[in-house]
Amino acid sequence: MFLNRYSKFSLGLILISVIVISSCKKDSLILENNDPPYYAEIPTVLVEFYVNRLFIDLIGREPFDEEMANEVAFLRSYDLSMEGRDSLILKLQTDTNYIPGDSSYKMAYYHRMYEILKVRLIEGASNAEIAFYKNINYQDYVVDSIAGEMLKAYKNLLSYHNLNDVINSEIQYYNGEISIRDVHRRMIYNAVYDQINMNVFNYINAVFDNLLLRYPTAFEFDESYKMISDNTPQILLGKSGQSKYDFADIICDSRGFYEGVIQWAYLTLLARAPTSEETDRMMNTFYYDYDFQYIQRQIMISDEYAHFK
Q1: Residues pairing with 103 in the sheet
Q2: Domain carrying residue 136
Q3: What 3-state class would DSSP assign to 99?
Q4: Nearest-angstrom CA–CA distance, 159 and 40
Q5: Its pTM surpasses 0.90
Q6: Which of 2, 217, 281, 288 has its Cα between 20 and 30 A from that of 262?
């Protein structure tokens, strides 16, 4: 009887030991290779490179020595966390305090955005060039009005206002009066863009390529061509339109446009296209709030952009 009790007691200890050992092994497997990044080990030269890149990409210049020292110290105070990075990027996008040479970070940021979009869509035409075409349109409007050629006069006046809208895009986008879709629509609906992409055939292909990052299908091209050339009601991307303005508006309000902007942001900031998962995640908000600045911050806080990997 004594041996039986002893055997049972030993067996119990063995079972308990096995359970404890098994539990320990399971815990070690869960934690293995799952340590959070230790940003304190990131060398200062990489942090400085990150700050320098943010300044160039967002406001178009390198930071001054004092700015570099301050922002590196700021990021270190946040242990280089995503929260700290987001705060710095938001500052460069929105801070209105006076900065010598830039007026403010916000002013510099929106000027940079305006210039980048002109490079993307109208070959970087300067405001002086746009104003030159605008003034010609206005002079032609006056001449045609005096001559009684009211249809030609109206077309020249419309072209004048379209070019004026392009120039006004910078300050209106800065003030939140228009969204990034409106800036793009203005950039593809003016005489300068028409001059670059002469005739309807080239215009349609250029708009699809520039904004949707693809060429139109045969059906899309036919519908677009008739919409622009004949001013007849056609269906494009699920919406009806019957003019060149309608065409531009439909393109810039399509899901493909917003996906194209996201792809463009990844290509310019990371030199690669986004994955399907990244595009879907960004589209969850961007399609409804048009907040391109949020898209930039999500890309620029990443270790991939910062080279902190």
Answers
A1: 99
A2: 124-196
A3: strand
A4: 56
A5: no
A6: 217
CB 124 within 8 A of CB 118: yes
Q: Give how many domains the chain has, as a whole number.
A: 2
Same domain? 101 vs 136 = no
The proportion of the chain whose per-residue pLDDT surpasses 90, expressed as a percent, equals 85
Q: How many residues belong to the chain?
A: 309
The reply to whether 132 falls in a domain is yes
Q: Is 74 helix (H, G, I), strand (E, B) or coil?
A: helix
Return the pLDDT at 37. 62
Is residue 57 left, alpha or beta, with left meaning phi > 0 and alpha meaning psi from -120 to 50? alpha
Q: Is residue 78 part of a domain?
A: yes
For 158-206, the pLDDT digits (tens) are 999 999 999 999 999 999 999 999 999 999 999 999 999 999 999 999 9
Domain end position, chosen among 139, 171, 196: 196
Structure token pair of residue 203: 């215009």
Q: Look at residue 302 and tell me if it is in a domain.
A: no
| 234 DSSP β-pair partners | 241
- At 304, which amino acid appears? E
